[in-house]
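Section 3.1: Structural characterization of target chains.
Under the original work plan, the team committed to producing a structural model for every single-chain target entering the pipeline before any wet-lab resources were allocated. The record below documents one such target. The sequence was received from the expression subgroup and is listed exactly as submitted; it comprises 294 residues.
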Amino acid sequence: MKIFVLSRNSALYSTKRIVEAARERGHIVRVLDHLHCNLVIEKEKPQVIYHGEQVEMPDAIIPRVGSSVSFYGCSVVRQFEMMGAFTLNGSDAILRSRDKLQCMQILSTSGVGFPLTSFTNYSNDFDEIIASVGGTPLVIKLTEGTQGLGVMLAENNSSAESVIEAFNKLKARVIIQEFIKESRGEDIRAIVVGDRVVAAMKRTAPPGEFRSNVHRGGTCQSVELSESERDAALGACRALGLNVAGVDLLRSNRGPLVIEVNSSPGLEGIEGATEVDVAGAIVEYIEYSQANDN
């Protein structure tokens, strides 16, 4: 197969591993920086121009689109979809997962558990907002963010009001979520490929930090998921229409709660912690999907 990986940097661990895994299986692989793709939109003949040359039709696309360039990156993915290429994750599914509010709204109708969440139109009814998620401490998140950026813990009402008010004045959209005390400083990252969880790790935050992201200094180790945790991860991906994703879960007293779904999960932490060939599993899924589509 001819496979394109859409990535800003071919030297990134995740991009390199996917390229290696695909080439080991005999596929032709090319890395395209999606921000350098120009799109020609024409009736019945959509085209992608890369560095002045028309891009040939690939068999499959693996999008590694960062959250900061979601709009243009997903436009490029959509263009390849229009050309008839198989895309690992579709453009609409990526956008659904990137918007934390939309993601939670979709999960709310799918039976997947998640923390109690509140969203307003820059409301200053602070007491009402705080009470709606069970009081403080609570978590404040920008609706678009990744790697723990734009996520804050407000320990008391005064700090919650100050942070919400500051974001309101900046016209920055945030969601307010209940803080799951029993999981403080720990979460689970499950990697879903197709209809199975291929790897999972527990991430633990460093002392004094509640965010467990590896990019925030967290540590990780392989973990065995319960059946309900696997069901939650798979259910979240089905609801959002993602074929491959990293699903972040909290272990709560009422069962697993989904806090984020990442359509371009990093592979370095999960492969290092679990010794699972996640990149290989992704390529195998593409092979299976293409074989069953032909």
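The chain has a mean pLDDT of 93.
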